[in-house]
From TrEMBL:
SMART domains: Aldolase_II
UniProt keyword list: Cytoplasm, Lyase, Metal-binding, Rhamnose metabolism, Zinc
Protein name as it appears in the record: Rhamnulose-1-phosphate aldolase
Pathway note: Carbohydrate degradation; L-rhamnose degradation; glycerone phosphate from L-rhamnose: step 3/3
One GO CC term on file: cytosol
Gene source species: Lonepinella koalarum
Length: 272
């Protein structure tokens, strides 16, 4: 019998969180990850679930994912420690029947609760299930250094931010043709930022929280991580270009149309 600790989804979370920490995007206990699991994913492990799982409340109504399973990072858990003790730092949870709380089925062995951003994650999951016909299963929040830096110098509007990031790397348009959503600064961990992020997730796979970080989605941990990696790479190039005095030449609108045609993507309207 394979232990939950050795399951592909726990190993995937261990790798993702460690990679995020190595990138410098999840200092201390900053950031959080949630991965929606299917019944078929957890079925082989149900006999290892806690016999009397404790129940925790959720601040928002998430009835649309009632009964669904997620593996998530724990609140206050340092990403650099996930690789050392996944059973303490991660949690396999199931949203309760009413969508008002969740059961801790595995993990958080020394106590604690799921990430403080859980409600925001679940609201975004609800939107992305509909938008992607169930394909998107990961929500990833982290603090990419250069992207955050750009929120201090670029206008905080989606057209400007998207165009800047697309221009910084040829692959960017191909990787996130739906551009980036940008919120105003908001207090993290409250219901309002969860609703606002979910609203942006209806149009974008990347949502920027100014002076804070990013929310991103994808069908797998690799896809979500890779999306942030591309956005952060473009941000790093932008920071360097700005520091060198600004652009002398760049990718043109005509170039972007040719790129979109070659790779079969449809750029979000209003940017080109």
């Amino acid at each position: 019998m394979t232990a939950i600790l050795e399951s592909w989804f726990v190993k995937g979370m261990v790798k993702a969180t460690h990679d995020l920490w190595l990138k410098g995007w999840d200092e201390r206990n900053g950031g959080n990850v949630s991965f929606r699991l299917l019944d078929s994913d957890v079925e082989p492990f149900k006999n290892q679930f806690a016999p009397n799982p404790r129940h925790e409340l959720i601040t928002q109504d998430v009835a649309e994912v009632a009964g669904q399973y997620f593996i998530v990072t724990g609140s206050g858990k340092f990403f650099r420690n996930v690789i050392l003790d996944p059973e303490d730092t991660l949690a396999l949870i199931q949203v309760d029947e009413q969508g008002k709380g969740y059961y801790v089925l595995w993990g958080l062995k020394n106590g604690g609760v799921a990430t403080s951003e859980l409600a925001s994650h679940l609201q975004s999951h609800i939107v992305r299930i509909k938008k992607s016909n169930g394909q998107d299963r990961v929500i990833m929040h982290c603090h990419p250094t250069n992207l955050i830096a750009l929120t201090y110098v670029l206008p905080l509007d989606e057209v400007t931010f998207t165009r800047e990031l697309w221009e910084m790397s040829t692959e960017s348009l191909v990787v996130f043709p739906d551009g980036v959503g940008v919120l105003p600064w908001m207090v993290p961990g409250i219901d309002e930022i969860g609703y606002a992020t979910a609203e942006k997730m209806a149009k974008h796979t990347v949502v920027i929280w100014p002076f804070h970080g990013v929310f991103a989605t994808g069908p797998s941990l690799d896809e979500a991580f890779g999306l942030i990696d591309v956005v952060e790479k473009s941000s790093e190039i932008s920071v360097k270009v700005i520091s060198m005095g600004g652009k002398k030449q760049t990718i043109t609108t005509e170039n972007f149309h040719a790129l979109a045609k070659r790779f079969g993507v449809v750029p979000i309207q209003g940017v080109l």
